Amino acid sequence: MMLPRELTTKVCSLNPQNDHLTHSVELHLSLGGEILGYESFASVIHSKARLTYTQVQQFMDGASDHGIPETVVQRLKNLCPLARKIRALRVANGSVEINTPEIEIQLNHQGKVEKMMPRSESKEAYQLVEECMLLANRAVAEILIASEKPSIYRVHDEPDEEQWASMGMELQALGIPKLPQTRQEINEAVKLAAGTAVEYTANLAILRNFKRAEYSATQIGHFGLAFDDYTHFTSPIRRYPDLLVHRMLKAVEAGQPFPISEDRIEEISKHCNETEKQADSLERKSIEKKRMDYYSEIMNSSLAATFKGYVVSIKGKGMIVELPDSLQRGMVTFASITSEWLEANEEMTQAKTRGGKVRHTIGDEVEVALAKVDTARGFVDFVMADQIAAPPRRSRKPRIQPDLKTGQPQHRGKRRRRR
């Protein structure tokens, strides 16, 4: 959900050199990043500058041509090292440190895909903003909890027994000798995989065995962040739960009752969960459509393109390979690998020959080429790059010479078939 454009781009925007009505959360932190106290209140702010992530990243990287006003530079000098300490403390307290893979699609003026690449959410500039938002969301959740009034929270339940077991089995298949049962053990597994060939696939194995974060009137904590209390407060112009939280916070600060019951908040939570799923589904379909168009164009061109990918799962008929640059998945069927007979092992973690030799394991980096792009059904088939047939040689017509006995033409090198 987004508020009307007139509000988001004017009234509710943070355009520089203007006064803006805001709802502020002021946090008091130690030099080590620990929360010492906080308060929330209605306020008026005067924005000094509007910075881009690129500018802030350049500043954090030590560049001198970042274009940030000098009046803001000193604040960044204080904030950047503090944000690093806040993040380190959060991870030390058990917060799961995995970046969710997302892609960025660049279109030309005709709306065609020019480039696809991983979105650089891991950059420190993004992390700086993220840490500030997490602190504010956490502080507001604690204020609402203390008020004992009904409210809406962002909750994330821990994996169930089946998900823990599946996660452990997949990590073991990648050669990571860890069967996680806690957040700390998940982070240990992430560290073991970091910098190795299976890092990307290990992170996927962990993420796909997580439950989905949701909105709820009942606070059960946030497993992934390791927060006992958490809500969404920082994006009221694009998320309805945040707008609701602002109204609740305003009522708490004014000492007024909030005219929504806990049952009604639970109904709103369920509705927001469903609409969030729908929005995610529409976003996926939009991305899939652009990806299909992109790979279809490559498939129909004369380009002999190959792609780096990772084996992310193994099925009875073949291997599922994911391309990290676009998150496109496709199957390499065992039948397409003509050099030898392959089949999946019982655990569906390896592709073996009939003689038992392991040829591919979940997590392997492979090079593939496009075999088929079905835009109507939205799927792609790959073939291993080394299985691409070489272009056929131009065949010569067999020389025709007369048979010495009959005088009739005969084809050299061709044996007549007996009937």
Core attributes:
419 residues; alpha+beta; OB fold (Dihydrolipoamide Acetyltransferase, E2P); five-stranded mixed beta barrel; 9 helices
Average pLDDT number: 87
Q: What is the beta-strand fraction? A: 15-25%
Number of helices: 9
From the spread of the alpha carbons, the general shape counts as globular
Uncertain residue segments: 390-419
How many beta-strand segments? Answer: 16
Radius of gyration: 29 Å
Q: List the secondary-structure elements in sequence, H or E.
A: HEEHHEEHEHHHEHHEEEEEEEEEE
Oligomer: single chain
Q: How is the main sheet built?
A: 5 strands, mixed, barrel
- Report how far apart the termini are: 76 Å
Structural class: alpha+beta
Secondary structure: helix percent: 25-40%
Number of domain units: 2
Strand order of the largest sheet: 7-8-9-14-13
Describe this structure as you would to a colleague.
With 419 residues, the protein is of the alpha+beta class. It folds into 2 domains: 5-160 and 213-292, no CATH class; 302-387, OB fold (Dihydrolipoamide Acetyltransferase, E2P) (Beta Barrel). The chain has helices at 5-11, 53-60, 70-92, 124-147, 161-173, 183-193, 199-207, 240-254, 262-300; strands spanning 19-29, 35-46, 103-107, 113-118, 153-155, 214-216, 306-314, 318-323, 328-333, 342-344, 350-353, 358-361, 365-374, 379-384, 400-402, 409-411. The strands form 6 sheets. The protein has a 5-stranded mixed barrel with strand order 7-8-9-14-13. It has a 3-stranded antiparallel β-sheet with strand order 10-11-12, with no helix packed on it. β8 (318-323) and β9 form a beta hairpin. α3 crosses α4 (124-147), α4 crosses α8 (240-254) and α6 packs antiparallel against α7 (199-207). The longest helix is centred in the C-terminal third of the chain and has 39 residues, at 262-300. The protein is globular and about 75 Å long. Mean pLDDT is 87; it is low at 390-419.
